[in-house]
Design goal:
Layout lengths: L15 H4 L18 E8 L3 H13 L4 E10 L10 H19 L6
Parallel strand pairs: 1-2
Length: 110
């Protein structure tokens, strides 16, 4: 999901076919069952944060194991600034640890 290249408000996206395409917004996928475990990382100060939370809820509802990480005081695109923003670096480190643990425990297919 490439939120960096889409509108901060998907309802304002001019082309409905693009806006409703699950490749742009996985929340719009009809069936999430059977997906691999997911790590959803959102910025707390981001117009897309509610969509990220809703996606995590839908994944859980479909029986998909989900880790939701929220950088509460950071804005959209914080990952690009992690080198200079300690809170951003911390959440990326946490994400990396979670991925290493999941792969080492065999939770994700190789």
């Amino acid at each position: 999901w490439s939120s960096d290249v889409c509108s901060s408000d998907l309802t304002a996206w001019p082309d409905r076919a693009v806006r409703d395409d699950p490749a742009w917004s996985p929340l719009r996928t009809t069936d999430l069952a059977g997906l691999a475990p997911a790590i959803v990382v959102i910025a707390g100060i981001d117009p897309l944060a509610p969509e990220g939370r809703a996606y995590a809820r839908r994944l859980r509802g479909a029986g998909v194991p989900v880790t939701l990480m929220e950088a509460r005081r950071l804005g959209h695109g914080f990952a690009r600034l992690a080198a200079g923003v300690p809170a951003g670096a911390a959440i990326l480190d946490r994400c990396g640890r979670s991925l290493r643990r999941a792969f080492s425990e065999g939770a994700y297919p190789s």
